[in-house]
Design goal:
- The complex is a heterodimer.
- Chain A is mostly helical.
- Chain A starts with 14 loop residues before the first helix and ends with a helix.
- Chain B has ten helices and twelve strands.
- In chain B, a hairpin with a 2-residue loop joins strand 7 and strand 8.
- In chain B, helix 1 runs antiparallel to helix 2.
- Chain B starts with 18 loop residues before the first helix and ends in a 13-residue tail after the last helix.
- The chains are: A mainly alpha, B alpha+beta.
- At the A-B interface, helix 4 of A face helix 4 of B.
Chain lengths: 205, 326
């Protein structure tokens, strides 16, 4: 398994394959553009800071799960081309995570580092969110092909397996934020568990 | 002669009212005209509410100054739009936009309130009969949600102390318990779901808390009868406590000996105590309670002890360990 499935002779690829990556790229931008459009058209209601940060948080978790779904989808469907989307989807997940965290640090807390530090220590859900962030940063930084070469395939793979831990931490982040009625975080957790199950099945079957 | 004792929560005379506050006040004064026009003159529609109200009630609404004196210089009214589209009412869903989105099918009238338990005059009353003996007063209160956001809301309601006295609690009655209506057909949040709350929603107060002059049973806000999403037709307002104590759409009031099992306390006793007084020094595991964001503000502000009503309510908790009885 390499970071990117090498496809020699890309110009001869079928039409769907050629358009897949740019099309998905545009799709990935839609939640961000909808965020801007919604703010400009409707506003964000009574508590725009909370609304915006939660919106970005929702999409962070969704993109993380989408990126984690690439390999299971390939395993189940045998559609190898999806593997070429993996890095892009992972980087989109990180981008939404970054916007989510910037919203919290810069707008919600207004760079009150002491308050942020207290939040990280005392609020379970923020502790888990920060664990996910801390894991995702080195993964994003080592996403380039040159980094794969520098680290060596085995080390790079081991490092990037941490993304599972980040996924679990992100689901816990959501679960512990919810006051009551944990159906939604449990759905995300079930999807994550399902994706793991495919990989584990593949490994031992 | 009027002797006024200055309280900490009063606005200081040298503080100039901000333009926005003034504008809000102006629109509020206009809205209060609507109170006379809607609440008093038949706002609780189709009922005989209007004609039977004594005339002196209208005067209560005119005296807005006193209501405003309770506010600080940084307390301007939260817009009606925000008050009525952003709130928690789990009976209609868990998102704060859900109540306004899904409360339309709810029918607040006709309405009956059952009063029972350890009191001399139990009974089941039509809402009009329940309200009839009481003056509807204007109260502008800060509202602090446990989620660390807050609002300033102009309520219209009746004194809870007067209600308590009217039903003649027995000596053994130490607490008052409230219940919200259960109507899954009209309240989609009551249809269940994993990890949801137990219905009916139950809240309670110590009897002396219920007798505090700040506690009201609200029937309106911004000069209009309560919108469904804000707890129509009758809800509790205790401004020194976190917002979830303000139980909505009340159908039952019971005088009891033991501390009522309040809904959030049952759901998560480690996070929500029975008292739930606003207290910046006792943190909630999920939110710091030292700060809050006033809806409409960009920056957070410091949360005041008892939400700024310490002078009015502090004596009720003298000697209590508020970290234990949070």
């Amino acid at each position: 398994m390499s970071a990117e499935v090498a496809v020699p002779g890309a110009h001869r690829r079928p039409r769907l394959d050629r358009w897949l990556k740019p099309a998905v790229f545009v799709l990935c931008l839609l939640p961000f553009f909808w965020l801007i459009a919604r703010f400009l058209i409707y506003g964000f209601g009574a508590n725009p800071i909370e609304t915006g940060i939660r919106y970005l948080g929702d999409w962070s978790l969704r993109f993380l799960l989408i990126a984690l779904a690439v390999t299971p989808v390939r395993i189940v469907t045998g559609w190898i081309v999806v593997a070429r989307l993996r890095r892009m989807l992972g980087l989109f997940a990180f981008t939404y995570v970054a916007l989510h965290v910037i919203g919290y640090v810069a707008i919600d807390q207004f760079f009150d580092w002491a308050a942020i530090g207290r939040d990280i220590i005392k609020r379970t859900y923020i502790t888990f969110g920060m664990i996910a962030l801390v894991i995702l940063i080195p993964l994003a930084l080592t996403s380039a092909d040159s980094m794969v070469r520098r680290l060596g395939g085995a080390r790079w793979r081991n490092l990037h397996r941490l993304v599972y831990v980040a996924g679990v931490a992100a689901v816990f982040h959501y679960y512990f934020m919810v006051k009551a009625g944990h159906l939604q975080p449990l759905i995300y957790g079930a999807i994550l568990a399902g994706l793991f199950a495919v990989r584990i099945y593949k490994r031992f079957a | 002669m009027l002797i006024r004792h200055k309280k900490a929560s009063d606005v200081a005379s040298h503080e100039i009212t901000s333009e926005s506050t003034y504008c809000n006040r102006r629109s509020f004064l206009e809205a209060s005209g609507l109170i006379a026009g809607s609440l008093l003159a038949g706002g609780l529609s189709k009922t005989a509410f209007a004609g039977e109200l004594p005339k002196d009630r209208a005067a209560k609404f005119a005296d807005l100054k006193q209501s405003y004196a309770k506010l600080g210089p940084k307390d301007s009214l939260t817009p009606f739009e925000d008050v009525t589209t952003y709130n928690n009412f789990y009976e209609f869903g868990m998102d704060k936009a859900d109540p306004s989105a899904y409360a339309a099918p709810f029918k607040p009238l006709p309405w009956t309130v059952k009063v029972d338990g350890l009191c001399g005059k139990p009974g089941t009353l039509d809402l009009n009969d329940f309200l009839k003996p009481h003056a509807i007063e204007e109260r502008v209160y800060r509202m602090r949600c446990v989620e660390a956001w807050s609002m300033v809301i102009p309520w219209a309601g009746i004194s809870l102390a007067d209600v308590v006295k009217r039903f003649e609690p027995q000596g053994s009655a130490k607490y008052i318990a409230f219940e919200t209506v259960v109507r899954p057909a009209e309240m989609r949040g009551q249809k269940g779901g994993i990890g949801g709350l137990n219905w009916p929603y139950v809240e309670g107060l110590r009897l002396d808390e219920a007798m505090n002059p700040l506690a009201i049973l609200a029937v309106g806000l911004y000069g209009k009868q309560l919108p469904n999403q804000n707890g129509a037709p009758l809800r509790l307002v205790t401004p020194w406590k976190y917002g979830f104590k303000g139980i909505k759409s009340i159908v039952r009031i019971s005088f009891v000996e033991k501390e009522p099992k309040s809904t959030w306390n049952v759901a998560n006793p480690g996070e929500y105590g029975f008292y739930s007084n606003v207290n910046p020094t006792v943190d909630h595991p999920r939110w710091t309670q030292a700060m809050e964001r006033r809806i409409g503000d960009l920056r957070r502000r410091e949360t005041l002890m008892f939400n700024g009503y310490e002078e009015e309510v502090g004596q009720m908790y003298a000697g209590m360990d508020l970290k234990k009885y949070f």
